[in-house]
């Protein structure tokens, strides 16, 4: 074979100086200069705000690998974050797509429970759903466009509601959305702006927009609430389940403080309290003479004897009273009686 070049013919195999120079590693100053230059180049890339994060990582990687070109792996597809689509509120074969965040939820109540920091979902703004059978995303309807699955036994296109008929849902045009219990069991009261049970419609306390308020206990809007409201004898409304909790420790309306239990039911309790007061009179130094106001009959009474168990209204016998003014205390009463004796 021919030599690659004439230089190969001129080399002396016994010349040790050439071999030593070929095997000698680069000097330490050269290595330090290269490391400093690489570090400065990386710092310049980090300060460059005109390039994307992906391009910045690629340039730094090329520098660290001595500019060997490496093909980056393909980026993973960005899938919208989804909350649990298991709905415990309605029986249905579809999930909704929340228009505010483009996430999939079981229903609007699931959205309100899981989407932290989001306002309540507007049921009327829902435009897309996802079939639970074939996972096809599609416009709102009651039949899947891909697998023909029926999404709900009951479907209201106005409220975007899908559910079973076991709770007898119906749409009230005057309320503006769907309710449960059967249309035959309710009548809409235009004064209260609410569907009222036919059993109490003729006798219910009618106030304008009475139910367009928050429950005084849980503060949830009663007009659109999924919980049933309850009328109190004073005319105010409260959630039925909130009333049951309240009745365990307080017998008064949380708004007007009137007794929510009938006078006949409270009569025995008032009599028992009056006996306790008679058997346990206040000592002279703790006696008070006060003016009171009765929350039940709204009557003011003057110069009543105060007791820590309560002050009874002389008109209706209720102990649901508040002290408006203290006229005299125990020391003053003692001084007055001593002066009269002298």
UniProtKB/TrEMBL annotation:
Stored Gene3D superfamilies: 2.20.28.10, Zinc/RING finger domain, C3HC4 (zinc finger)
Give the Gene Ontology MF terms in alphabetical order: ubiquitin protein ligase activity; zinc ion binding
Any one GO CC term of the record:
nucleus
Q: Which InterPro entries match?
A: RCHY1_zinc-ribbon, Znf_CHY, Znf_CHY_sf, Znf_CTCHY, Znf_CTCHY_sf, Znf_RING, Znf_RING/FYVE/PHD
Q: Domain named RING-type: which ranges?
A: 215-257
- Pfam families reported for this sequence: zf-CHY, zf-RING_2, zinc_ribbon_6
Q: Which segments show compositional bias classed as Acidic residues? A: 1-14, 25-34
Q: Which UniProt keywords apply?
A: Metal-binding, Zinc, Zinc-finger
- Domain CTCHY-type spans what residues? 151-214
SUPFAM superfamilies, A to Z:
CHY zinc finger-like, RING/U-box, Zinc hairpin stack
Q: What are the CHY-type domain coordinates in residue numbering? A: 80-149
In the record, biological process GO terms are: protein ubiquitination; ubiquitin-dependent protein catabolic process
Annotated region described as Disordered, given as residue ranges: 1-34
Do you know which PANTHER family this protein is assigned to? RING FINGER AND CHY ZINC FINGER DOMAIN-CONTAINING PROTEIN 1
Query: Could you identify this protein by its name?
Result: RING-type E3 ubiquitin transferase
- Gene source species: Grammatophora oceanica
Q: What is the lineage of its organism?
A: Eukaryota, Sar, Stramenopiles, Ochrophyta, Bacillariophyta
